[in-house]
Amino acid sequence: MTNSKIWLSSPHMGGTEQKYVQEAFDTNWVAPLGPNVTGFEQDLERYIGESTHVAALSSGTAAIHLGLVLLGVKAGDEVICQSFTFSASANPIVYLGATPVFVDSESETWNICPVALEEAILDRIAKGKKPKAIIAVHLYGMPCKIDEVLKIANQYEIPVLEDSAEALGSTFKRKHCGTFGSIGILSFNGNKIITTSGGGALVAKSKEIKEKAVFLATQARDQAPHYQHSEIGYNYRLSNISAGIGRGQMEVLDKHIVLRRSMHTFYQELFQNIEEINVFKEPNSNFYSNHWLSCILFKNETTETRRERLRVTLENEQIESRPLWKPMHLQPVFKDHPYYGNNTAKSLFTRGLCLPSGSNLTNEDKERISKVINNFFK
Ligand SMILES: *Cc1c(COP(=O)(O)O)cnc(C)c1O
């Protein structure tokens, strides 16, 4: 008998999603607008609070793209971006003809290092160009040191775009990730903590900014009976079908966070007596992670060989795991862009591994994972 595959993070439906999708069909709201879109936005606004205004969009990447447009990023500008992230954080900078300037991580939250951030800002200003925006990420659901980042950003008057794609439900000092920056973004891709099968959202601080985002996301149509345009628009709105899935998912979000966090507890216990490994965890009680993915780090600065051997051992047992994000400044496509830091992200990349973390993993799955891991480190 072959075992079924244990995935890193797979969609986990709560049960009521189809009811909302059915409603969309019954009322013929099969379009990129409708009651589910409005309902989903209201659910998100209620959930993350802080009087936010949410625009549901077709993807997290689209939300970053529009966010940068709203912050006034134009061709020739420079935008600071956390290097240790998924490429979708950085790609929209290039869509706009702007240049990413990459900044290293610190080792406590694995997110943008405030010291390297300030160094980057000062050096770019000295070179004649003040960065137009800062993209800070809450990677793997771990809030970044957002208070320190905002302090620096405010000092130099540079707006922060908060990439909260992996951090819905995570908080810093009890305030939700995605609500700190000038603009926040969320993702509902298939592998995220909740999914609409594909989708995202832009979190705005005012009704006007949200309305501007929706205007741009629906082809920037001016008020007129005919089609009239004074600006370049995009087709980035979320469909009413997808938003229906989102409404159902919002009903189980808190439950899924509890389950993700219990997967993290499971790994902390599993690796308790394994000397070689640290489980990535919150630095202190100010940080509350949704633990979207549970990650481990080999303590020694060894080569990638041993980490890779563990990954392949798990793979042979039908258990998916994945190295941590490869930093953007080490990616072939971004290799000629400026980078500030001291290789913290690079070290994390060579030493780290993400383990199966889904809210839908069973006790049997956990037993299979325990067995393979205990065997490997025996
Ligand atoms: C998933 C993700 C995105 C992009 O979201 P999509 O909805 O897949 O476009 C952006 N940034 C980070 C950190 C992500 O993990």
From TrEMBL:
Pathway: Bacterial outer membrane biogenesis; LPS O-antigen biosynthesis. The keyword RNA-binding does not apply. It catalyses: GDP-alpha-D-perosamine + 2-oxoglutarate = GDP-4-dehydro-alpha-D-rhamnose + L-glutamate. InterPro entries: DegT/StrS_aminotransferase (IPR000653), PyrdxlP-dep_Trfase (IPR015424), PyrdxlP-dep_Trfase_major (IPR015421), PyrdxlP-dep_Trfase_small (IPR015422). CDD domains: AHBA_syn. The active site is at 192 (proton acceptor). Keywords: Aminotransferase, Pyridoxal phosphate, Transferase. Its cofactor is pyridoxal 5'-phosphate. It is an enzyme of class 2 (transferase). It holds the Pfam family DegT_DnrJ_EryC1. GO terms for biological process: polysaccharide biosynthetic process. Its EC number is 2.6.1.102. GO terms for molecular function: GDP-4-dehydro-6-deoxy-D-mannose-4-aminotransferase activity; pyridoxal phosphate binding. The modification N6-(pyridoxal phosphate)lysine is found at residue 192. Belongs to the DegT/DnrJ/EryC1 family. This is GDP-perosamine synthase.
